[in-house]
Amino acid sequence: MSLENALIGLKNLLLSRLKSFETNTSFEVNIEDFNSWSSVLTPHFPVSKIDFNELVIITLALVPHIRPHYFDRLIQSVYPNGGAFPHLGGVRGKGHRGFLPSGETALFLLAGENLEDRFQIQHLFSPDHWFAKKQILRLAEPEKNEPEMSGQLIMDREYVEKITLGKITRPSFSSDFPAARITTQQTWDDLVLPKSTLTQIQDILTWLRYKEILLDELEMSSKLKPGYRALFYGPPGTGKTLTANLLGKYTNRDIYRVDLSSVVSKYIGETEKNLANLFNRAENKDWILFFDEADALFGRRTQVQNSHDRYANQEVAYLLQRIETYQGLIILASNFKSNIDEAFIRRFQSIIHFPMPRVQERLYLWQRAFPDKIQLDSEINMRQLAQKFELTGADIMNVVQYVCLNALAKERVKVSYHDITDGIKREFIKSGKLN
User: Fold this and answer.
1) Strands 350-353 and 288-291: what pairing?
2) Could you give the CA distance from residue 351 to residue 7 in angstroms, rounded to a whole number?
3) Res 9 pLDDT > 90
4) I want to staple 234 with a disulfide (CB 3.0 to 4.6 A). Which of 106, 203, 354, 400 is the partner?
């Protein structure tokens, strides 16, 4: 079966409806004739069965993406002399000048002039229908004061790609999607943390692996809030981002780091709009959303002194609502737990401290840091480095990168104690610990 079956079926339906309307005769559809539609389209959607009315609406929304002038040619075949046909609804785009089906198009095809049937079809566009719940299909906002059903039928771009290309293109960073996918080549062995921290991380990993069984097979979905919310806090470079990456890597989930500088806007109402775009794209994808330096957006709310304060607090309230209804994992990262609004703190299932590495952990990091092809001078004492210099894992890797590049530039493979301490000094200057 191919999409041609759906196009032919929709064509026959449209022509039959137009003919019955013109001749004022009864309109009958043999639903069995449309079974081939279902076999082609149903596998692409997160439901086990699609009924006839849903199938027609899906096809209407899909057609402009695969046959841009499909409707214009059909209408012209019935009305060769031209002329408008308002009963069919539809809109014209700005760049695309062909006929774009609207809610009114669906009403005409599926219900004609029968009011009771038309009201039944309208229910398919309610927030309770799986079209809306799964963020699959919706009506565009109509022009001001115009009927609700006059809005264009819009299918989520990812479902269009899935049906037409056979795969979903990952979203790119943009103003509409202020997040970037992150990955890592590192493994759990590269994560050096206290046992207590690792145990808490394991709790998140367990939830990611067994959440479907917990909610569905144990029937806990009515008793538990959807999703999982975790706060990672501690100094920069202590493993917060690496942990988020590893959770995604080892559970086969995409992880997106949210760019808070793009989300937070000085313009009233824009932050809420940016957040809505982000969560709408992420909904039902099972992505991990990682809010780094979360203080900017999740920080303590201010007392209302002006309109901007009021809208800022409104945005926080909106964010609270969205993170509580998100069904996947949300991770907030901050340098200090005290920076996060108490309203958010109460909603975390995990609050995990990422401390500065202790001497033994720093020793392990130093021992694993240098590549095998770099020779270390015999005067270098790794334990002494670990005891003397309080550095994070990220600091140590910055030092190692500096030392290795220096060695390559000087065309030598041996590293001295002075080379390492020079790199450490640069890190301390960068972080403000040395002038």
Assistant:
1) unpaired
2) 53
3) no
4) 354
Predicted local confidence at residue 347, as pLDDT: 85
Place of tokens 């049937």: 117
Give dist(CA 254, CA 273) in Å, integer: 23
Q: Is the pLDDT of residue 17 over 90?
A: no
Domains, the chain, ordered by start: 3-165 (no CATH), 179-353 (3.40.50.300), 359-430 (1.10.8.60)
- Around 103, how many Cα atoms within 13 Å sit in the side-chain half-sphere? 21
Sequential DSSP letters for 185-238: S--GGG----HHHHHHHHHHHHHHHHHHIIIIIS--TTTS-SSEEEEEESSTTS
How far is 229 from 245, CA to CA, in rounded Å?
16
What lies within 8 Å, CB to CB, of 324 at 6+ separation is 225, 227, 229, 347
The burial class, CB within 10 Å (0-12 / 13-18 / 19+), for 9 is buried
Crossing angle of helices 103-111 and 3-23, rounded to 10°: 70
CB distance 135 to 280 below 8 Å = yes
Q: How far apart, in whole angstroms, are the C-alpha atoms of residue 11 and residue 5?
A: 10
* CB of 16 closer than 8 Å to CB of 26: no
Sign, Cα dihedral of 105, 106, 107, 108: positive
So what's the pLDDT on residue 309? 46
Assign 433 to helix, strand or coil: coil
DSSP reduced 3-state for 258 = strand
352: closest CA among 334, 326, 379, 328? 334
Determine the average pLDDT of the residues in 258-263.
Answer: 77
pLDDT at 28: 66
pLDDT surpasses 80 at 311:
no
How many Å apart are CA 322 and CA 280, to the nearest integer? 10
